[in-house]
Request: fold
Amino acid sequence: MFSLKYLPHKEPDEKVIFCLHRHGFVLFTIAMAFLIFALLPLGAYFLVTVELVPFIDSEILKIFLRLLVFVFYLFWWMLFYYAFLDYYLDVWIVTNYRIIGVEQKGLFNRTVAEYKLFRIQDVMAEQKGIFSTVVDYGNIHVQTAGEQELVEFKQVANPNYIARELIRLVEFNKHKMNQSADKKDKNESKTI
Amino acid sequence: MEIPTFIFLIAFLLMAACFVIFSLFLLYHAIRFGVASWVNVFTIVIYMAGAALIFLAAYRYIASVDWSQAIKIL
Reply:
């Protein structure tokens, strides 16, 4: 596991401002879908006991069906955890210097990218649909000056607030860089 | 011709082995790439407990079955 206290190549005065995951409502919708899926064996059981009793009189067939139900629930549980990991392992860490985007795209397929704040020009927050508007989650698109999308924060909570704070951090970061560049120029001119 | 019923048990055990292998991959991802927080640890524990419950229920049923029965084909 990685800790937020020990980020790679951490600057001395670097602080984590946001650690963003997808909104919990997204996990809730996934959980509801899996819950409905979990009721399938119960529905099949009622169908079998009401409609197919004459055909399922064999003890051997009952053993087979019960083992099938256990296998079904084992794989259901595994797929549920897989869906949870696919949701949970996507994380976007915003510090006062950079954005670290970690995206899990299935098993053994992971992208970790780092974006310096001074490269960012545009930040766009997007909320589409009734649930994302009511629950307040959405996507944030971060672009460079050349309209090249650097990173997309997917289905994060309070996207408008996060976008505003990102812009504030970018402007502060650029101002700080300009100040240190000015100081460096002054020092160089003094030595000459 | 008769086929023993424990062929179903062997098939079940094979599927259980696939489940265990895939679960190891999932737990590897959770432990290696997850954020170090109580949420991650809690979900790992819940997953293992859920799997253990399903295996326990399966074991209790399997222990109650007479596997010496045979399926008559012809």
